[in-house]
Amino acid sequence: MRPPEVILSALWAMRSNRMRTALASLGVLIGVSAVVSLVGLVTGIRNYIRDQFDTVLGARVFEISRYSGGFEDLDSWLESRRWPDLTVDQARELAGLMTTAGGVTWRSGSGGRVTFGDRTVESVRIRALAPSETDVAGFAIGTGRFFTHAEDAARARVCILGSDLAETLGTPAGLIGGDVTVQGYRFTVIGIARPLGSIFGHGLDDFVAVPWSTWSELLSDGRDEVEIAVLPREEVGLEECREEARLVLRRIRGVPFQAPDNFYITTQQGILDSMQKVMAGAAAITIGIAAISLLVGGIGIMNIMLVSVTERTREIGTRRAMGARRRDIVRQFLAEALIISLAGGFLGLLVGYALTIAAERLTPVPAAVSPFAAVLAVSFSAATGLVFGVFPAWKAAGMDPVEALRYE
Amino acid sequence: MTASGPVIDARGLRKVYRMGEVDVEALAGVDFRMEQGEFTCMMGASGSGKSTLLNIIGCLDRPTSGLYELLGRRIDSMDDSELAAIRNRFVGFVFQTFNLLARASAVENVELPLVYARVPGRERRERAMEGLERVGLADRAGHRPNQMSGGERQRVAIARALVTRPALLLADEPTGNLDSRTGGMILDLFRELHEEGNTILLVTHDSGVASSAKRLVRIRDGRIESDSAR
Ligand SMILES: Nc1ncnc2c1ncn2[C@@H]1O[C@H](COP(=O)(O)OP(=O)(O)OP(=O)(O)O)[C@@H](O)[C@H]1O
Ligand SMILES: [Mg+2]
Question: Which residues of B touch A317 (CB under 8 A)?
Fold first, then answer.
């Protein structure tokens, strides 16, 4: 038989038993739709994380602090508590010694109350930033300007407002050049930051940024622990710059030869990597569910196919008497299993996509329709059909024609 | 295949079925020849081995031992797909129980052997329609088997057996499931086919048919008891 005829005859056999065909493909349908929607979920979250990192943070800036940016075990966490503080003096020294850095800045922070006119906002994040030639502040200016070195050196009482905070307090035109009160001290507003958005529903634009020296004098309560941000010079690779920062800082902090670092360097890539690890775990679970549901779906198909082969024993005998070879019979039943399974897979794909879109529209879950899911659905259902169709087809083809014709 | 030699040439055919500890000898050494254009009737008690012999002759089954040549070709050395090809090209089967595909229309049923002969769709349909016309059922082409009478079904089955223009037509009690009048019509059809030059081997229980046959072979306990040609 030619391939189109194989398919036609399979469709024809299925047409005469619609209910059974539908039930047989149900398992694959459910399995594939579950997999497709899970893949949509995983893809959506992954895209979301990637977008956040792309927009919120500069990709090449890396941070040095006593705190790990990723996931650490309890022992290393306890160990890191014993490390000496990362001080502003160390940061200044690092900035002076590094040759591959395009910008080194340090920052710190506290919380407090901000007042403008008759409006007060409680527990605002106060970000203390050292000025820097290159923008490594972690935000961009929307209106107004950044602080200057001179302002930092003079401990000028100037500030930049996060966009959410600015909106709560007044209009940009009214705020810029005006005075706000931060923890009781008067600051002149010189700029408003461009909105950053949010990470996992946590707003990032609710802050006030002040020069580091000013913060240290008025708002730090004597703490001088900082976090250092380094931007590699444009022509320098991230790894090279990072390694220089590591070696220079070891020397500054007097880390003995061969002792481990007593600080963490976190690159954006590192954060992304640890996120990816979590997502890979989710993907592994998805694959597990896929395997189980397709196994169940496949067994359903095999069961139906075995029933069908038994029922059609006479037909098989007749076809053999008319000149069908074993392989014609194999093809016929394999095509049927494949079509049932592909039909289930295709419908499952549609259902899965519908679920993904519904989740994206109706819930805060950032699900995304992925073309990869379609490839997955089709190949998984085809594989299921083939794997679980082989045994019934082989059984059908193995029948002795004479016996098959005598079958009651 | 050559037109010269015999169509069927079987010598010392034995067929043994193992039933647990006992061997059932369905054929116990059969010598049988048939020339082209012959019309032979075969009779025998139930269980005498008629169907077994017919199946071997039709290359649907293999003998346990003995020599069988169909159209001058030894079939014992052939593999499954070669036998399938032989059945497809050179043998037409007609069964007692018709064995039409229930889900297919009359014309689709007649097309079936041509499907396996890889005849293209349009030509297949034309030849199947010619076949239905030959058995007088052109107007039933779209009917399914369950929409036809027993006699009509058997005629569809005959059209199907003839559609590849086989060298040999084998019929195993083709009238067994029909009343005598319809059966008579089917037998008349076989006689006509014989007159048109077909080589036919027909198993029957009807002694009236058998007595009018040119050649009558009687089988008993897996052996040929009598053969009017000898
Ligand atoms: N698959 C089998 N296994 C065991 N014995 C078999 C098998 N097929 C046939 N036989 C035996 O072989 C013998 C011949 O059977 P066969 O079907 O050829 O008889 P028959 O002459 O066609 O009878 P009927 O007129 O009833 O159709 C019988 O005794 C039968 O029981
Ligand atoms: Mg019989």
Answer: 99
